[in-house]
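Supplementary Methods. Inverse-folding protocol.

Structures were first reduced to a discrete structure-token string of length 182. This string, shown here, constituted the complete conditioning input.
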């Protein structure tokens, strides 16, 4: 990582940097963030992933980034052996319909082998991604509030850890991105 990062930083403009971020509640009894480093580049889309209570929204607020009123997400805490179901709410300026939002997501992820965008009106379930490296995405739009809603599902034991490591190794070593994962 230390050899790659300086090259990336020279190529793209950094718009947000935070180093060694710590945050705790109740006089230090509950540590939410411990030594977090973050670098955001111009034009970059960032997804903060993790279980409920790990400090995702706290990090956003500390960095002065997106406010809860603009963007929020909830990892559903349900009694399952594996899998994460995430609901993400955000303002969608310039979007006028659910069809338009689905088209935006479809275009963006068209070349991503492990992202499946569902057709209008459909949302994923954890069983749809069980034991796979897929991230399934369903999109909704509330015209009255101008908010987009994304429901995503992953198998956190594959996509969330081991599968992601294999996918990254494949890319780093020049192998087919899907090798060993389909």
């Amino acid at each position: 990582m230390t050899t790659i990062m300086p090259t990336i930083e020279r190529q793209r403009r950094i718009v947000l940097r935070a180093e060694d971020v710590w945050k705790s509640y109740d006089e230090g009894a509950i540590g939410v963030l411990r030594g977090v480093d973050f670098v955001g580049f111009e034009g970059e889309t960032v997804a903060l992933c993790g279980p409920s209570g790990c400090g995702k929204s706290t990090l956003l607020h500390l960095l002065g980034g997106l406010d809860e009123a603009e963007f929020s997400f909830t990892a559903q805490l349900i009694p399952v052996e594996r899998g994460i179901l995430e609901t993400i709410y955000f303002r969608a300026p310039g979007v006028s319909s659910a069809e338009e939002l689905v088209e935006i997501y479809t275009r963006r992820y068209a070349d991503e082998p492990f992202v499946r965008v569902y057709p209008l009106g459909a949302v994923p379930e954890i069983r749809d991604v069980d034991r796979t490296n897929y991230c399934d995405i369903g999109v909704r739009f509330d015209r009255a509030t101008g908010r987009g809603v994304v429901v995503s599902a992953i198998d956190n034991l594959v996509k969330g850890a081991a599968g992601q490591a294999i996918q990254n190794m494949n890319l780093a070593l020049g192998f087919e991105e899907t090798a060993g994962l389909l």
